[in-house]
Structure to design on (52 residues):
């Protein structure tokens, strides 16, 4: 699955999810709630881009 990068450098990895913030492992980016924010800096989901 595609990983997504935040301007702060945090990488959202769908295989890991963000369990501490309500996103289960295996959750594709498209299925991450629009209200979710970066756990490191608080950036909104639309600030992320596809990681290389």
């Amino acid at each position: 699955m595609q990983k997504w990068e935040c301007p702060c450098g945090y990488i959202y990895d769908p295989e890991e999810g963000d369990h501490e913030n309500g996103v289960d492992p295996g959750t594709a980016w498209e299925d991450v709630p629009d209200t979710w924010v970066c756990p490191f800096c608080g950036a909104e989901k639309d600030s992320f881009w596809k990681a290389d």
Summary: The chain has a mean pLDDT of 97. DSSP finds no helices and three strands in the chain.
